[in-house]
Design goal:
With about 350 residues, the protein is α/β, with parallel strands linked by helices. The chain has two domains: about 240 residues, D-Maltodextrin-Binding Protein, domain 2; about 100 residues, 3-Layer(aba) Sandwich (D-Maltodextrin-Binding Protein, domain 2), CATH 3.40.190.10. It contains 15 helices and nine strands. Strands 1, 2, 3, 4, 5, 6, 7, 8 and 9 form a nine-stranded mixed beta sheet that branches. Strand 6, helix 6 and strand 7 form a beta-alpha-beta unit. The radius of gyration is 23 Å and the shape is globular. The chain starts with a helix and ends in a 17-residue tail after the last helix.
């Protein structure tokens, strides 16, 4: 009889503990995160959030999904299949201009270079030499905007002095190699890969920048969850900066990139290079960043990629980051408190 009672008690205790664990886990806010698997910094941070306990430490249950291409990732944001996405300037403006209710909450900084590149034996030595030439670039991308900026600075007008062709990112390099265009605009890590192999040479380059954009529906339903996510984001940046080799190895596995290439290209990012403690991490929406975003919004409208120009000032929220930073301090937040859960 005692054994039966003991067994019943043990069973009750087991299911009580199981229920409490389940309830405790359900008390965390579910957040669905999208990141690009082939983009520097954004991709490394996605891997940190996927492979560590940082989200759980900040009272979040994360569903972290990698996307090979940007358009399907942004479509997932618009269709509310994810709550937040890591992207760059131009793609972030597209859903905003089309009326989707989302908020720009942070930037991770530079994602590397977008560069005008030509064949090694090309007579083109500088951007102004491209007059009368053909240039290939994926339309609607941040490097597309950077290309037009570089052309304008050289006194050239796309469509008048230079023919700019819309070529997909997977085809653009082969089109240059086959002589279909005189130059292309691509971005890191491809820029560094082709430079090292001496397949193409850089004529001019500009950096492009990370944008972290979150659906308003998530913010409205989970304001504390949004704040906790930004705290987790700063922790993830700190982990990346202090565990470069490990994080680059993770990112290299999913992107099939040489970790040395990842390291070289990531050095354009100031967080990657300089962060030593949580207070060093800078994800703020600076005046320079806002200028980049406004110019990107103007670009998408003038290129008729969207029906109207996105209102960038209406789409930013620096207050969430400020609230997140109130809970962060160098004494209680550090890499030693992070554990790897999915190596």
């Amino acid at each position: 009889m005692r054994k039966i009672i003991s067994g019943i008690f043990s069973g009750i205790l087991f299911f009580t503990i199981l229920h409490l664990c389940y309830a405790a886990d359900k008390s965390k806010t579910l957040i669905r995160i999208a990141y690009p698997t082939a983009t520097l910094i954004n991709g490394q941070i996605g891997q940190v959030l996927l492979r560590t306990n940082i989200l759980k430490k900040n009272n979040l249950n994360g569903e972290v999904t990698g996307f090979l291409y940007g358009p399907p990732m942004m479509e997932a944001l618009v269709s509310n299949k994810v709550d937040v996405a890591f992207t760059s300037e131009v793609p972030a403006t597209l859903p905003l201009a089309q009326g989707h209710k989302a908020t720009i909450i942070a930037t991770l900084g530079s994602l590397g270079r977008s560069a005008i590149m030509v064949l090694p034996d090309s007579p083109v030595k500088q951007t102004r030499d491209l007059k009368g030439k053909k240039i290939g670039v994926p339309f609607g991308s941040s490097p597309h905007r950077n290309l037009l900026v570089m052309l304008r600075a050289a006194g050239l007008t796309a469509g008048k002095d230079v023919e700019v062709l819309n070529i997909g990112k997977d085809e653009v390099a082969s089109v240059l190699l086959k002589g279909g265009v005189d130059a292309i605009t691509i971005w890191d890590p491809a820029v560094e890969q082709y430079r090292q192999k001496n397949k193409f040479k850089i004529i001019e380059a500009q950096e492009y920048f990370s944008v972290v954009i979150m659906n308003n529906e998530f913010i409205e339903k989970n304001p504390q969850g949004a704040i906790n996510f930004l705290a987790a984001l700063k922790e993830a940046v700190l982990f990346m900066a202090t565990h470069k080799d490990e994080v680059n190895k993770w990112f290299g596995e999913i992107s099939r990139l040489d970790p040395e290439i990842i390291k070289i290209c990531s050095n354009f990012n100031s967080n990657y290079c300089n962060v030593k403690k949580i207070s060093d991490v800078d994800i703020a929406l600076s005046d320079d960043f806002l200028k980049e975003m406004k110019e990107s919004a103007e670009f998408t409208a003038t290129q008729k990629l969207v029906p109207q120009e996105a209102d960038i000032l209406k789409a930013i929220n620096p207050q969430l980051r400020l609230e997140a930073e109130k809970k962060l301090d160098d004494n209680t937040y550090g890499p030693s408190r992070v554990t790897i859960t999915n190596d």
